Amino acid sequence: MGSSATSPQAGHHGSGTRRDFLYLAAGGFGAVGAGAALWPFIHSMNPAADVLALASTEVDLKPIQAGQRITVTWRGKPVFIDNRTADQIKAARDVAATELPDPQTDQKRVKAGKDQWLVVLGVCTHLGCVPLGQKTGESKGEYGGWFCPCHGSHYDTSGRIRKGPAPKNLEVPEFTFVNDTLIRIG
Amino acid sequence: MAKDNAFFNNPTVKWIEHRLPIFSFVDHSLGSQYPTPRNLNYWWNFGSLAGFMLVVMILSGVFLAMNYTPHVDHAFNSVERVMRDVNYGWLIRYIHMNGASMFFIVVYIHIFRGLYFGSYKPPREILWWLGIVILLLMMATAFMGYVLPWGQMSFWGATVITNLFSAIPLVGDKIVTLLWGGFSVDNATLNRFFALHYLLPFVIAGVVVLHIWALHVHGSNNPLGIDTRGPQDTIPFHPYYTIKDAFGLAVFMIIFAFVVFFAPNFFGEPDNYIPANPMVTPAHIVPEWYFLPFYAILRSITFNILFIDAKLGGVLAMFGSILILFLLPWLDTSRVRSGLFRPIFQVFYWIFFVVCLLLGWVGGQAADATVMGIPLLRIGQFCTFWYFFHFVAILPLLGWFERPRPLPISISQPVLGGGRVAAGAAAKPMEKA
């Protein structure tokens, strides 16, 4: 290593010297260390283990009549479960998906063979309000689904955005049918 | 001068001064050794009023925190307990609650004073920037404070505002989850908001120190907008402006006290006396009044701009409406500071002022409201356009096309007729002009 006879200033590659290299290496190492020290603090703000542990919920579908909607809580958010009538399913499927603001067919939003069960997050994709339409007498919007009173978004009977400022369809959460009348969300 | 007086000859004061010159520091900062333009009008009271409000908010907040429980099951009730059971709790809470509104009123007047008299122009750009930083910190603090009582407006305001960050492409949802510490606004959110709400006022106090430091480098601007040229143009801050500020403070406190004692819920929303319910959104969500103009700008972007969708566009416009103030010293190309000497600027200034009020009014109405057949959305969109147009078009062009009125030679010249007198020649600056 000591074979080089050149002085520290005489780096022949540009103006870099051995000292510059040491400065950069030490500085870079320090920056990585500072970043590594910062991460635990940032990550501590992400959902904690107990919050994640509450991340799934089971719902019994037996008491829900055709045409009835219920609201359950999952991860602190409302989930709308809709036992849709044949008319409502037809209304959702009569429109071509390509014409929608957020194109998606109704079939993709329900489980095959369980077409009457629509499960969506009751959270408007605009700024997170809870849309109306779950209770009798509430506005269901122009497309018979849900209506968000905050900024006027209309959702259809498949929970898809049809009109208003919301950019996306109501989100379908991950869920599975445990048996014919029981679902697990999350 | 002050060094000769009895106070600075006191042995104890001398002993301390020799080790920590704190008295002369104060004297140079806000005392007899701080020369101030002699022509400041009452619009210059609002800086010290803002400082007063910061102290009021910190003090009342500390006492509220002693009785507050940052937990979703207890927060609402702990605030009600403050109101009903804690001795004078109602008073402290009403001071804090209305203090936020008064703080914003004072700061907005302070900002509009700066806009009119060109206080952002060289060499006070950094002073101006620090003011904007304070405004942003105030907004964050006020927003998080409003969440703490955990009423319906608290909860849904927090939900809507934190959801703004979901508009950020790619990482938006991850950022929102990080802000929440969960999958919705919940206990983790309330806890961190309380911690930050307690922290940020002290950060503000730190930036205020920088703000005053920057102010003292070149001194206050003044209604004429011309530089001071020597002692004949200035008077010592103490006692002249300390007494003027004290008088303004007394008038301000009458108004403040009136609100606290006779209309404590005037600025508030009744819905916030309903405990937070994550399952039901109130029919009409509105932010606190001081956010309404920005809320109107957010809602006015209902269309996509190229590849930016409406939601992101609204968020960018809202933050942009404040961030553009950072560029103001360069957008305003006129070299004349004070609006008093700018006849066309004055007209546009007041149009801009009305546009800001209109935005505030639109922001408080329902999204689909109409007035005389005109959808408020259109009014909001026009005002949003004008807000930005004022900064990016009118101000740059006015500097070129406007012919300002002639500036006085000095501040003292109209009174003493001696504006050109060399510095120090006008011997008795403390005497009445």
* Residues in β-strands, percent of chain B: under 5%
Largest sheet of chain A: 3 strands, antiparallel
How many beta strands in the DSSP annotation of chain A? Answer: 9
| Count of the domains of chain A | 2
* Oligomer status: heterodimer
Q: Architecture of the largest domain in chain B, CATH level 2?
A: Up-down Bundle
Instruction: Work out the radius of gyration of chain B.
Output: 24 Å
Mean pLDDT of chain A: 86
Strand and helix order of chain B: HHHEHHHHHHHEHHHHHEEHH
CATH fold type of the largest domain in chain A: Rieske Iron-sulfur Protein
Residues in helix, % of chain A:
10-25%
* CATH architecture verdict of the largest domain in chain A: 3-layer Sandwich
Report the largest inter-chain contact: A-B, 26 and 32 residues
Content-based structural category of chain A: alpha+beta
Question: Which strand order spans the largest sheet of chain A, edge to edge or round the barrel?
Answer: 1-9-8
Main CATH class of the largest domain in chain B? Mainly Alpha
